[in-house]
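Propose amino acids for all 704 sites.
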């Protein structure tokens, strides 16, 4: 059976939350269903909590669901001795308190019937419709007799896929696990630890991503008590010793209320105590705890604009800690969370953290996707007749976040249950995400520490194999660049990789890929192209030099008989550049472009400039630098583009690659200086090349 027994030693929640009286429910359940004209006594409290959020809800379906659940579970008992029906009732109450709509509550009452009784999915569908049937099926475990050791990971895979079509599946699972964690005490310690670890590694991160903070924080405290009993007892004792610590916050709350009343800003100011894990983290971070560290102030207002009005008053009348300010209203978190965060210091120097949000934001912050009600209801409020995939194979879900879509994508690529289980826990271990912007304004949600490689696969899928680099906030960046929250990233992909079948990800990419989707795609490509794992991903590792005939005279003319003319390697002038010359040792004259920094240096040394003009010959010699992202065949493609443009390579130097970028320096002989712009364009069009410029510093090769 899926539910466990009661734990009398479970840590009490500091947040006031109604608890089910299991003995009363047990007696009510044993009396059987009530008359058809009224609700059974056992779900009266569920109906009351449900009507608090949905005053017009039709409770008849709840009565029918309870009758089926009670009759099918009759005779079954939890290990603590309570009738089994108390478990689905408790799960339903948790969801009712969070504001779940009637369909979710109906499925919650029935969530164990198919798994633990003779009731079938067809019976559920016939009695309650496809929607409820889909939810019940989504949370029904797979049998160990059929799947063996793979039953648990495959059950979670099944629930994730079902959640992709209806997020309410995971809402029911989270409430189910919360009640089981509340009542875990009579289990063997090793089984308690196993369940707590799965809760910590998988379900708590899922609750965080779905924004259901009310469930997440309580699950954290329950796991904390089981897996870290000594630290839990230390934290509990610390809270007990500072039971009046929040009085300091209450004083600041009174001052804040007075300021807002005077400013005519309607607001409710509450003291919000931290839960056990939050206190533990604060103690580790701050060392000695002050009274105001045991809680936060919560300011609730009616409108979004009022949030900023409150912020202005607080920062005007108190001393703000600007470094603590965060605006999650203008830029909501990936899990729907919206709030303003700030911290202010009172007259005595005590610092209070303040959360500012509307009542609606607060409901979403606590209940996440559960607070959104039925995301599939039609415009007139009616529920659709069926759940499951839409005609295009994927149900349109306004609550389906990007991280869930990514999970669903990569789980298809990991058929092995052990690999899936490991990758799932690793992925969910990232308890924070960042939001990066694409050039078109759309956003990507990525884990903290994600690089441009992760962004490429999140945006383009397998097409990211052809990614050559990126621009981050308008500046060129390597694929290994770590992205920050709010960055704008533009991925640069090869326009045509058909001519280069070897083009693809480098083995080095795995060192910088953070997301499972990117790592799986890169690994699959490397396995399919084993030769690429042996070949270097960029240009040659050692500096290479290719030298051709250095003959040919410069076509610059200086009125100095017998002088040898040299074109300066620092700026490589070509017709029709404005030029000037300077005499150097050996009777030679070096010709520079007039805007070259070398001109200023020569004048600073007291060298007198000489007039220089271009001769009648149209050919010229120029040094170009090509900046590119490393890839196979790059050198060959560049030299082919140069030859096609009619230029001859006098010398070429390829520097060792650095952070996947390669620098090529070419000294070229052009038959006509007018062809230089076209040559530079042709070089820029080579896949992987992002800039071509004329040398503006001492060249690596001397042109005679």
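Proposal:
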């Amino acid at each position: 059976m899926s539910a466990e027994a009661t734990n009398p030693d479970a840590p009490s929640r500091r947040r006031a939350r109604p608890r089910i009286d299991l003995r009363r429910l047990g007696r009510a359940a044993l009396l059987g269903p009530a008359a058809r004209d009224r609700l059974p006594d056992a779900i009266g409290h569920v109906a009351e909590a449900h009507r608090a959020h949905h005053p017009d809800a039709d409770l008849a379906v709840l009565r029918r669901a309870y009758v089926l659940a009670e009759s099918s579970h009759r005779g079954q008992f939890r290990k603590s001795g309570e009738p089994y029906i108390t478990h689905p009732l408790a799960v339903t109450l948790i969801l009712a308190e969070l504001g779940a709509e009637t369909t979710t509550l109906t499925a919650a009452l029935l969530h164990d019937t198919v798994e633990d009784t003779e009731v079938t999915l067809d019976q559920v569908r016939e009695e309650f419709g496809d929607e409820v049937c889909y939810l019940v099926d989504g949370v029904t475990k797979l049998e160990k007799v059929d799947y063996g050791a793979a039953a648990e990971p495959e059950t979670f895979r099944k629930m994730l896929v079902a959640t992709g079509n209806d997020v309410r599946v995971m809402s029911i699972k989270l409430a189910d696990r919360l009640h089981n964690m509340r009542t875990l005490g009579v289990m063997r310690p090793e089984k308690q630890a196993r369940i707590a670890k799965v809760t910590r590694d998988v379900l708590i991160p899922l609750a965080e991503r779905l924004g259901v903070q009310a469930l997440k924080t309580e699950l954290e405290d329950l796991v904390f008590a089981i897996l870290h009993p000594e630290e839990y007892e230390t934290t509990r004792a610390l809270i007990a010793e500072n039971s009046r610590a929040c009085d300091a916050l209450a004083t600041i709350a009174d001052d804040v209320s007075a300021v807002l009343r005077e400013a005519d800003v309607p607001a409710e100011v509450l003291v919000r105590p931290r839960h056990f894990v939050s206190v533990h983290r604060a103690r580790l971070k701050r060392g000695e705890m002050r009274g105001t560290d045991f809680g936060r102030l919560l300011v609730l207002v009616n409108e979004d604009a009022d949030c900023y009005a409150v912020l202005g008053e607080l920062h005007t009348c108190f001393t703000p800690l600007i470094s603590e300010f965060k605006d999650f209203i203008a830029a909501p978190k990936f899990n729907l969370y919206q709030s303003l965060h700030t911290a202010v210091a009172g007259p005595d120097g005590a610092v209070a953290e303040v959360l500012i949000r509307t009542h609606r934001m607060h409901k979403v912050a606590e209940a996440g996707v559960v607070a959104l009600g039925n995301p599939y209801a039609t415009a007139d409020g009616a529920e659709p007749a069926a759940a499951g995939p839409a005609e295009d194979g994927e149900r349109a879900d306004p609550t389906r976040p990007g991280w869930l879509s990514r999970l669903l994508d990569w789980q298809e690529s990991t058929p092995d249950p052990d690999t899936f289980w490991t990758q799932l826990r690793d992925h969910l271990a990232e308890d924070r995400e960042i939001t990066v912007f694409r050039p078109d304004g759309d956003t990507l949600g990525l884990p903290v520490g994600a690089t441009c490689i992760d962004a490429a696969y999140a945006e383009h899928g397998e097409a990211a194999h052809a990614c050559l680099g990126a621009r981050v906030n308008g500046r060129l960046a390597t694929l290994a660049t770590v992205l920050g929250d709010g960055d704008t990233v533009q991925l640069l992909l090869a326009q045509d990789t058909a001519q280069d079948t070897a083009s693809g990800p480098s083995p080095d990419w795995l060192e910088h890929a953070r997301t499972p989707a990117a790592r799986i795609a890169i690994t699959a490509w490397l396995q399919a192209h084993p030769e690429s794992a042996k070949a270097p991903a960029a240009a040659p590792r050692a500096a290479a030099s290719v030298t051709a005939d250095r003959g040919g005279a410069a076509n610059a003319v200086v009125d100095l008989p017998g002088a040898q003319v040299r074109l300066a390697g620092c700026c490589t002038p070509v017709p029709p550049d404005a030029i000037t010359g300077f005499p150097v040792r050996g009777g030679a004259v070096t010709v520079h472009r007039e805007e070259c920094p070398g001109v200023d240096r020569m004048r600073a040394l007291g060298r007198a400039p000489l007039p220089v003009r271009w001769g009648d010959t149209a050919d010229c010699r120029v040094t170009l630098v090509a900046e590119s992202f490393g890839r196979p065949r790059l050198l060959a493609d560049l030299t082919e583009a140069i030859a096609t443009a009619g230029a001859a390579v006098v010398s070429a130097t390829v520097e060792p690659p650095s952070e996947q970028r390669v620098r090529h320096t070419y000294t070229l002989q052009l038959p006509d200086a007018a062809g230089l712009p076209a040559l530079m364009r042709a070089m820029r069009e080579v896949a992987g090349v992002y800039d071509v410029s004329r040398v503006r510093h001492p060249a690596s090769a001397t042109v005679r």
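The longest strand covers residues 620-629. DSSP finds 27 helices and 21 strands in the chain.
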